[in-house]
Specification:
This protein is an all-alpha fold. The protein is built from 17 helices and no strands. The chain starts with a helix and ends with a helix.
């Protein structure tokens, strides 16, 4: 049984990594070509709008990512009502979010018709992402293979779309609509696979009490998600307001390259999450051991990748974006480290949910958001986009490893994290066993 679970875990992770590698390769080619064609100004315009949309995307997700998986594991017979209730809530919130996005644009950028149209075309993607609720079921069942296939199909369709736009020398509006097309295609394929793979006893239906249960358990993550998005995206918004859209474009190029490697630890965390949470119910020591090995794995990855990117960052920017984006090199060398600490924070979410400490998530993130806002206000004025990168790094360190020390119950995570380094010999043995299979 354990061997079967181990094989399922590595197969699940393998498919997710394959999908992310495919996505990365398309981004390296099509994304970079699009950025070159659009130039820093139009590229910045799209990403300025995307930064504002991201706040409401988080709201529409309702913080249910880990919560709904945990609830379905505890009550498998209620999978249909949990999924159905989450779908209805997600759809209603998504529609409301689109209207709120457009209202915000009218307030902060009055008269900017170009930004208004670009943002409207991108914001439709919020509604299209409702299908993500179904991916939680695939994640729980270690069947992310099907979500990975759906994502690769959608990415291929959008890649063809963007190449066609480049050939036709289309306007920025068509590029903005790409995101909505991607999520529409992916959602359609995920729905097809769900209908085919689900147990026939699982019938999607809305239940007010189950919906309320999900919201009560996830509202901490809604608030913390908004705060996370705030300190992840406010830098682009402040750069756009304090500098210009061209600077936003250059900074976005740096953040995009810095995030290219995240697919590996994200795949590991998403695959390991359900296994670790299930282990918590039966074997506490085994649960801690697995969690420490996961923390050690993502830490080793981020240190290796960060050092490599500091050495090769300039070459990467030149190859992908060209000389117009060379100013992205310095912030990139800083941002690459911030992504590592962000991944540690993501992994911590497994422990937070398993221990029932959900409410502390928002407190820790609020600390980081406050640090981010204050430092950005000064650092962007002093050092421009490099200052924004420094702020992001400091904020991620605060949220991941310093803020948990402020509360007695969450201090345990910091202890677990540093004790995970003692697991290095065990970690090496685990990797060897996995390879030998």
């Amino acid at each position: 049984m354990a061997s079967n679970k181990s094989r399922a875990f590595f197969s699940n992770s393998g498919w997710m990594m394959a999908q992310q590698i495919y996505s990365m390769l398309l981004s390296l080619v099509v994304g970079a070509l699009s950025a070159r064609y659009l130039g820093p100004s139009n590229y910045g315009l799209i990403n300025y709008g995307a930064s504002i949309i991201s706040f409401f995307t988080i709201i529409s997700r309702l913080g249910m990512d880990s919560v709904i998986i945990n609830e379905m594991l505890k009550a498998p017979e209620k999978q249909g009502t949990y999924l159905g209730s989450a779908l209805v809530l997600r759809l209603l919130t998504s529609i409301a979010s689109v209207f709120m996005v457009m209202g915000i644009i009218r307030v902060i950028e009055p008269g900017n018709i170009e930004l208004y149209i670009v943002t409207l075309l991108q914001s439709i993607a919020i509604i299209m992402q409702t299908y993500e609720v179904l991916t939680y079921w695939f994640q729980m069942e270690l069947k992310m293979k099907f979500v990975s296939i759906a994502t690769m199909i959608a990415l291929t369709v959008v890649a063809v779309w963007r190449v066609s736009l480049l050939a036709a020398k289309a306007s920025v509006y068509y590029f903005a609509f790409s995101y909505s097309i991607q999520y529409f295609v992916c959602g359609a394929v995920v729905l097809f696979f769900f209908q085919r793979e689900r147990n026939k006893n699982i019938k999607l239906k809305f239940n007010c009490l189950d919906g309320k249960c999900l919201l009560l358990n996830s509202y901490h993550f809604i608030i913390s998600g908004i705060a996370v998005t705030f300190y992840m995206q406010i830098d682009k918004i402040m750069i756009g307001k304090m500098m210009d859209h061209t600077s936003v474009g250059i900074y976005t190029a740096a953040t995009t390259v810095a995030a290219l490697w995240e697919f590996v630890p994200t795949a590991l965390i998403n695959s390991a999450g359900p296994i670790i949470m299930k282990k918590r119910q039966k074997d506490y020591d085994g649960y801690i051991r697995l969690f420490e090995e996961l923390l050690l794995a993502v830490t080793i990855l981020f240190v290796v990748v960060s050092i490599a990117m500091m050495l090769l960052g300039k070459i990467a920017v030149l190859i992908l974006y060209g000389k117009k984006y060379l100013d992205a090199v310095y912030p990139l060398s800083i941002l690459i480290w911030s992504t590592g600490f962000a991944i540690i924070g993501t992994a911590r979410g497994i422990w937070i949910v398993a221990e029932g400490y959900n409410k502390y998530t928002k407190y820790m993130v609020f600390v980081g958001a406050g640090v981010n806002l204050v430092l950005n206000f000064f650092f962007i004025q002093w050092w421009g986009i490099v200052g924004a990168a420094v702020t992001t790094l400091i904020s991620q360190i605060v949220v991941s490893l310093i803020a948990p020390l402020f509360w007695k119950k969450t201090r345990g995570f910091v202890k677990i994290y540093f004790e995970s380094f003692k697991r290095f010999p065990d970690f090496v043995d685990t990797i060897k066993r996995a390879i030998s299979r």
